[in-house]
Amino acid sequence: MPITVLVVDDQELMRAGLKMVLGAHPDLEVVGEADNGAAAIARAQELRPDVVLMDVRMPVTDGVTATARIIESGCGSRVLVMTTFDLDEHALGALRAGASGFLLKDTPPEDLISAIRSVAGGDAVVSPKVTKRLLDRLIADDPAAGRDPSVLDVLTAREREVLEHIAAGRSNAEIASALFLSEATVKTHVGRVLTKLDLRDRVQAVVLAYETGLVRPGNA
């Protein structure tokens, strides 16, 4: 079965270009499109695509709100945000809302295709290091932004330590080396962290680590 994709962008030329790129791959199928966030919500609930390619700056309803509504609807679609700037606060808003990552609109076609496949398979496609750089800037600009650190109380001391390393953008192999653990053990700890905190992926773990103050800008 092909991976089904909903293309959302307020620019017709951008939608046409994306459909042309995706249409060249037999394992991908564009099942619909939308030119604003409100239409994206309706189309996602109707079509239940595997992946929604979501613009963030759109009329009627923005992409961040649309992402949150799509995730909350339980339709099962995963959202991949497309943005013009890598340090875009709207991209962070989409990650907080449940997006599986974001890509720049000038991403090479082969990287876009790879990202869609990864997201459809349950992975996040944003480098935690890129997310860290975005969070460094935004939280430094707004120190009051955050969440109650008590949400981390469900974690063991070792799991908190693993979360700190995740927030630093380290891979399982790097965490294993730093903590003198096997990669299999680290993978188990990462899974428990995500499950206990009800997070979809490592990128959301990075966001939460910053919002709770477990990691401070510039310290990870």
UniProtKB/TrEMBL annotation:
Which PROSITE patterns does the entry mention? Answer: HTH_LUXR_1, HTH_LUXR_2, RESPONSE_REGULATORY
What residues bear 4-aspartylphosphate in this entry? D55
The HTH luxR-type domain sits at 148-213
Q: Which UniProt keywords apply?
A: DNA-binding, Phosphoprotein, Transcription, Transcription regulation
Gene3D superfamilies linked: 3.40.50.2300
Q: Name the SMART domains on file.
A: HTH_LUXR, REC
Q: Does the keyword Phosphoprotein apply?
A: yes
Enumerate the InterPro entries for this protein: CheY-like_superfamily (IPR011006), NreC/VraR/RcsB-like_REC (IPR058245), Sig_transdc_resp-reg_C-effctor (IPR016032), Sig_transdc_resp-reg_receiver (IPR001789), Tscrpt_reg_LuxR_C (IPR000792), WalR-like (IPR039420)
User: Can you give the residue ranges of the Response regulatory domain?
Assistant: 4-120
Q: What is this protein called?
A: Response regulator transcription factor
The protein's organism comes out as Nocardia acididurans
Q: What is the lineage of its organism?
A: Bacteria, Bacillati, Actinomycetota, Actinomycetes, Mycobacteriales
